[in-house]
Task: structure prediction
Amino acid sequence: MKVGIVGLGLIGGSFAKAYKSSGDSVYAFDADHTILEFAKIAGAVDGELDDGNIGECDLLLIAVYPRAAIEYIKAKAPLISPKTVVMDCCGTKREVCTEGFKAAEEYGFTFIGGHPMAGTQYSGFKHSTASMFNKASMIIVPPKFDDMALIDRVKKLLAPANFGRITVSTAEKHDRMIAFTSQMAHVVSNAYIKSPTAEAHKGFSAGSYKDLTRVAYLNEEMWSELFIENKDFLLKELEFFINSVKEYRDALEKGDEKRLAQLLADGKRRKEEVDGKWKQ
Result:
C-alpha cells in the first residue's frame, strides 16, 4: 500500500511510523521541510508527497488543522486519483467534511472524515510513536452512514494503525460529543491551573491534581481554532458546567452540608451510570 500523509505532527508522525512499521510505502508533506527531512532520516517516511505522486496513493491522511485541511483538499483535489481514499484527522468534523465530500463528488475520489481518539499533552513529530493508536477508538464520518462496503474498506486501510474500535458517526454528532468529551476537559483543565495556589502545589498534590491538569499543557493555536469552529456545542457544555458549579458554590456559601452531600452523591451516581456500573 502507498500512503500519503499531510502534516508530520504528533498524529501524522504516528501514522507515518505505524504504516512504515507495517511495510507500507509512506510519502509525506509538511510545511516545515526540516521536519520532513528528519522523518526521512528517522526511517518513518520514504519520500516527499508532491503533485507528481499524490495520485498514486491508496490512502491519503490529512493531519493538519481544519482550515489548513480544507485548503489542502481544495488545492489538491484535481490531482487525486479515483482509487484514493482521502481521510482528514481533524478534531472537528462539520466544516472539513462538508468541503471534503463536495470535492470528492466533483473529482471522483472517496473522502471520509476521521478523528483518531489518541494522543498526549505533547505535540510534534518527536513525540510520535508507531504504537500511538494501539487499541484506541477511531471515529469515521462516511458520506453515507450505511455504506458497509466503504466502512469495511476503510477498516482494512486503517489496519496497520491497530485501532481497537472503529466508531461510525455523523459530523454533527461527532462535534456535539467531542465538545463534551475532549474540548470541555481542556477548557476546565486550562482554567483550573491558573489558580495562584498552583504555584505551591509541590508536596501537596497527587493523582487528582495530575489527572485534572494533564491537558492544561496544550497547543493553544490548534485548540483555539477547534474551539471557535465548534463554539455552538462547546458553549452549551460550558453553560451547563458553569450552572452546575454554581450549585456547589451556593451550598458551600450557605454551609448547607446536606445539600452539598446530595450534589456529590448525584455526581458519583452519574459517573457510575455513564460508565455502565449503576444498578437499581
User: Anything to note?
Assistant: The chain has ten helices and eight strands. The chain has two domains: 2-169, 174-274.
